[in-house]
């Protein structure tokens, strides 16, 4: 088995040094805390704290509707698995501007660290490949982040970056949990209002 | 090409959606949305997206709305049962969510599996704050569609255009 040494709190900053050029959607719980830490909960990020399973589909709707922008979905293994079919929908639509970053800690971190399927036998990289996502990459250590950085810029989209991380706390960040306020902030920033 | 049984009203509805600025049509195939889906696929200015499950379309509508675009989610009534949690987008976040629901299990249904969900459609939608606009007859279509479009995009909420089996006709088994 591959030894996992990657700390999720050290992942997103070197992956997205150009964070202001991206639009981000993040799935509930730890992934949204990490993403909010990256952007300082900025208006180019829409975080969720519910609707588990919806992050990839939300990012797909955004990527198809803003083809001039690079869109990244940041989500966890549990959230992703609740909406796995969306990977098929992404593959069929094939938006070149969509990147999915799955932060896979193999546990349900928000609810007490209960072990998840990916800590057992489930291989999300093979699932993404089988869905028909053209570019799939797995990383398990910090020294692979530079390659991952290049992967999400140079490989044909849509892309799936499977980041297997240590179980452990996400970035400590208190973000705005009000979806109506977050919607207005994101729209105003994107639409220049 | 032989004329599709739902061609006439589907053309009208497609035009109404398009005039309202809808350019993303998401769907799970059903006899009631088959012609509309074809029209969305054929038109150069609209995109048809096949989903794997209906609630994906609720999330896609939210993602499109975040960058100022409009979508409509087309499904059979059984799919309404897959959507409630994701309707938190519209009820809690003021995201527009325009839906077109072709009914089963309401009037003349011959498949008993369709009745439980068909009879729960209105209650589920209402529980999640989705306004319901029912079409029983052809002469109700345009006004109901306009009302649903206005509720969704002027008031930023869930709005469902319900095409009943009185309107669509019941499938024979």
What features would you describe in this structure?
The complex is a heterodimer of chains A (193) and B (173). The mean pLDDT of chain A is 97. In chain A, a hairpin with a 5-residue loop joins strand 5 and strand 6 (114-115). Chain A has 193 residues and is an alpha/beta fold. Chain A has one domain: Rossmann fold (3-Layer(aba) Sandwich). In chain A, helix 3 packs parallel to helix 5. Chain A has 8 helices and 8 strands; from the N terminus they run H-E-H-E-H-E-H-H-E-E-E-H-E-H-E-H. By secondary structure, chain B is α/β, with parallel strands linked by helices. In chain B, 41% of the residues lie in helices and 20% in strands. Chain B has helices at residues 7-19, 34-42, 55-66, 88-93, 115-127, 141-154, 165-168; strands spanning 22-27, 47-50, 70-76, 97-102, 131-135, 158-163. A 6-stranded parallel β-sheet of chain B has the order 2-1-3-4-6-5, with helices on both faces. In chain B, strand 1 (22-27), helix 2 and strand 2 (47-50) form a beta-alpha-beta unit. The longest helix of chain B is centred in the C-terminal third of the chain and has 14 residues, at 141-154. Chain B is globular and about 45 Å long. The model of chain B has no long low-confidence stretch (mean pLDDT 96). The A-B interface holds A 23, 25, 46, 50-55, 57-66, 69, 83, 85-86, 88-89, 92-93, 179-180, 182-183, 186-187, 190-191 and B 24, 47, 49-53, 55-69, 71, 85-86, 88-89, 92-95.
């Amino acid at each position: 088995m591959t030894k996992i040494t990657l700390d999720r709190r050290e992942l997103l900053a070197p992956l997205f040094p150009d964070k202001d050029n991206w639009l981000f959607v993040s799935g509930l719980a730890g992934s949204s805390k990490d993403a909010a830490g990256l952007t300082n909960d900025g208006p180019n990020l829409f975080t969720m704290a519910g609707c588990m399973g919806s992050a990839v589909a939300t990012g797909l709707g955004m990527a198809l509707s803003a083809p001039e922008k690079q869109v990244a979905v940041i989500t966890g293994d549990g959230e992703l698995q609740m909406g796995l079919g969306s990977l098929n929908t992404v593959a069929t639509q094939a938006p070149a501007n969509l990147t999915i970053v799955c932060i896979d800690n193999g546990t349900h971190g928000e609810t007490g660290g209960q072990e998840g399927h990916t800590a057992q036998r489930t291989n999300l990289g093979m699932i993404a490949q089988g869905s028909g996502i053209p570019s799939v990459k797995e990383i398990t250590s910090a020294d692979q982040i530079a390659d991952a950085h290049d992967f999400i810029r140079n490989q044909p989209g849509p892309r799936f970056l499977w980041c297997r991380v240590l179980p452990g706390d996400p970035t400590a960040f208190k973000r705005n949990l009000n979806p109506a306020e977050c919607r207005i902030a994101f729209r105003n920033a994107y639409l220049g209002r | 090409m032989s004329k599709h049984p739902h061609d006439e009203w589907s053309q009208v509805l497609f035009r109404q959606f398009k005039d309202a600025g809808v350019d993303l049509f998401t769907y799970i195939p059903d006899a009631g949305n088959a012609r509309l889906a074809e029209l969305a696929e054929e038109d150069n200015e609209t995109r048809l997206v096949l989903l794997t499950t209906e609630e994906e379309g609720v999330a896609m509508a939210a993602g499109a709305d975040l960058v100022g675009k409009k979508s409509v989610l087309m499904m059979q009534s059984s799919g309404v049962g897959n959507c409630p949690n994701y309707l938190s987008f519209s009820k809690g976040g003021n995201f527009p969510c325009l839906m077109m629901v072709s009914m089963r299990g309401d009037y003349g249904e011959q498949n008993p599996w369709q009745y439980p969900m068909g009879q729960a459609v209105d209650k589920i939608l209402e529980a999640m704050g989705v306004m319901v606009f029912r079409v029983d007859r052809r002469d109700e279509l345009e006004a109901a569609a306009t009302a649903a479009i206005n509720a969704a995009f002027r008031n930023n909420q869930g709005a469902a255009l319900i095409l009943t089996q009185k309107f669509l006709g019941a499938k024979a088994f």
